[in-house]
Design a protein that fits this description.
The complex is a heterodimer. By secondary structure, chain A is α+β, with helices and mostly antiparallel strands. Chain A has helices at residues 32-43, 68-72; strands spanning 8-14, 22-28, 51-56. Chain A is built from two helices and three strands; from the N terminus they run ββαβα. Chain B has one domain: Up-down Bundle (Ferritin), CATH 1.20.1260. Classes of the chains: A alpha+beta, B mainly alpha.
Chain lengths: 95, 293
């Protein structure tokens, strides 16, 4: 294999109208448009989606495992933050 | 409960029959749904069959060449892309060769055509049978073929003597549009890349260019059906010239590859590249006749 110098892209697929784009994986591509073509071939060839996003992995700012406690631990005991006291009508999808 | 945190999980939701989703084998549009498969009375069945073989063989043989890139492509992403294009063409070949057996009344199946004909019975243009060469050669060939075939399908979809052919072409236009974009994208990137990539791309283009003419050279069956491919020459050349200009490549000036005694691929006269391809394509079917799985 060649020395890889192509940047890494993250791929997001919108599976249906009305749903969000969801991360499905990543790929290498020489530029944005080729990344979109490759995403089409790699991630939507079995009718998985109606829309595609690609973004350079380098453009994503991510939390690190070291930050897990200060970031996420405080939410564990605050039941009042969850909207569990409402009844959701059955005919409201995707909540 | 939210289950759309993974795209494939959302496939499991909802009414599976109503949704066009691969996981349940639903939503596959039959391009021939509702199309009358009777050969129109004013169309000669033998000519129509032959025409379907010309187009079907082009698609079948190029599909085989594209799929040969599996395990050999320069990048994993391109390997999947090339195989994908090959599978599109294979789908077209199946429909066209099935129609060929229907149109002439012999009832031959797609398999009969693909696996049980000899080399001289294949009607594909020589462009599609040549060995893959390097990536630039394969891209150059794909660019030429996809541009010409898309133009042909567009014409067939709008005005075909046969409704089945029109339906196959209407679907094929969408596939070929993607093939054309993919090939053009790589042509531009290699042509407008480094001096080395431009030289390789130009060499690939120069090598395939003499085979372009065959796509515009009519077989007599095409003329009898009123489908002269020569009409496509000018628009296709204009489209190719636009891509090459953007790629900063030179339009080759080499003339057409010589015909052999006035014959070429459409008449079953092929290059030495086709024999080995067919040997591989046909070996399993001939080793195990009638096998199913």
């Amino acid at each position: 294999m060649s020395d890889h110098t192509w940047p890494l892209y993250e791929v997001f697929v919108r599976p249906r109208r009305g749903l969000n784009h969801v991360h499905v994986g990543s790929l290498h591509a020489p530029d944005d448009r080729m990344a979109l073509l490759a995403a089409r071939d790699l991630y939507t060839r079995r009718n998985e989606g109606v829309s595609l996003w690609v973004v350079r992995s380098a453009a994503i700012t991510a939390s690190t495992p070291d930050e897990r406690d200060p970031f996420f631990e405080p939410s564990g005991d605050k039941v009042y933050r969850h909207p569990t006291f409402y009844d959701i009508p059955e005919d409201v999808p995707h909540i | 409960m939210t289950t759309d945190d993974h795209v494939y999980l959302t496939l499991a939701e909802g009414d599976h029959e109503a949704e066009a989703r691969w996981a349940y084998g639903t939503g596959f549009a039959d391009p021939l749904l509702g199309v009358d498969t009777t050969v129109p009375p004013d169309v000669d069945g033998a000519d129509l069959s032959l025409y379907c073989q010309l187009l079907g063989d082009d698609a079948l043989i190029l599909a085989q060449r594209l799929i040969e890139w599996c395990t050999k492509a320069p990048e994993l992403e391109e390997e999947v892309a090339l195989a994908n294009l090959g599978l599109d063409l294979l789908g077209q070949a199946r429909l066209l060769l099935s129609r060929a057996g229907q149109a002439d009344g012999t009832g031959r199946t797609e398999d009969d055509f693909a696996y049980w004909r000899a080399e001289h019975e294949f009607r594909n243009v020589r462009l599609v049978e040549l060995d893959n060469g390097d990536f630039a050669f394969s891209i150059a060939r794909l660019l030429l073929f996809a541009t010409a075939r898309r133009a042909l399908y567009q014409r067939l979809a709008a005005a075909s003597p046969d409704p089945v052919l029109a339906a196959v072409a209407a679907r094929g236009v969408k596939e070929l549009a993607y093939h054309q974009e993919y090939a053009a994208a790589w042509t531009v990137r290699l042509g407008d890349g480094t001096a080395y990539s431009a030289a390789r791309m130009q060499a690939g283009l120069d090598a395939v260019w003499p085979l372009l003419d065959e796509l515009f050279t009519a077989h007599e069956a095409e003329l009898r059906l009123g489908l002269d491919p020569a009409e496509l020459r000018e628009p296709v050349l204009a489209e190719l010239a636009a891509v090459l200009a953007e790629a900063e490549l030179t339009v080759p000036t080499a003339g057409p590859l010589a015909r052999i005694g006035g014959k070429a691929g459409r008449e079953g006269v092929h290059t030495e590249a086709l024999g080995p391809l067919l040997a591989e394509l046909q070996s399993v079917a001939r080793e195990h006749p009638g096998a199913t799985w």
